[in-house]
């Protein structure tokens, strides 16, 4: 969140992407492979531990791909862009960094223990947030 010396210049830092194309359904072995890749992206090592999707679960899930016809990306970083006339105002201005990160794992009732990859994922994300806090805007 970017707070400036005037309400007009308040802003947010962001990353966004817009893509254009026509969605296509992914079927067969490519569909199962895409779902495995998705799980691996979120929780590396997890797809080798869990039961694979059965026929009814795969039928209940739609996987789409989109060949890119066109794409655009925008990024806003940095601090406020105050008007020169506002620089003498005795008002705090700057960036309030915000983060979304995993917290300590909450285990369900089954006593299987927390796997190493879950602990590593949470600690890596926690370290990334700490590193981000150390960076000045």
Q: Which fold name fills CATH's third level, the topology of the largest domain? A: Pnp Oxidase, Chain A
**Gyration radius, to the nearest Å?**
22 Å
The number of helical runs is 3
Please tell me the total number of domains.
2
Sheet with most strands: strand arrangement:
1-6
Largest sheet descriptor: 2 strands, antiparallel
Helix content: 25-40%
How much of the sequence lies in strands comes to 15-25%
What is the arithmetic mean of pLDDT?
A: 86
Distance between the termini: 11 Å
Unreliable residue stretches = 132-137
* CATH architectural label of the largest domain: Roll
Instruction: Tell me the name of the CATH homologous superfamily of the largest domain.
Output: Electron Transport, Fmn-binding Protein, Chain A
Number of strand elements: 6
Approximate shape: flat
Given helix and strand content, the structural type is: alpha+beta
What's the order of the H and E elements? EEEHHEEEH
Question: For the record, what CATH class of the largest domain applies?
Answer: Mainly Beta
């Amino acid at each position: 969140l970017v707070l400036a010396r005037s309400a007009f210049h308040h802003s947010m830092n962001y990353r966004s992407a817009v893509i254009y194309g026509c969605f296509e359904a992914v079927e067969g072995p490519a569909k199962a492979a895409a779902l495995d890749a998705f799980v691996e992206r979120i929780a590396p090592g997890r797809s080798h531990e869990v039961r694979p999707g059965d026929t009814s679960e795969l039928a209940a899930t739609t996987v789409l791909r989109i060949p890119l016809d066109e794409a655009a990306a925008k990024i806003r970083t940095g601090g406020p862009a105050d008007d020169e006339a506002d620089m003498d105002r005795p008002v705090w201005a700057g960036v309030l960094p915000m983060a979304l990160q995993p917290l300590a794992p909450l285990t369900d009732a089954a006593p299987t223990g927390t796997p190493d990859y879950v602990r590593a994922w949470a600690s890596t994300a926690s370290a990334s947030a700490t590193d981000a806090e150390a960076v000045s805007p």
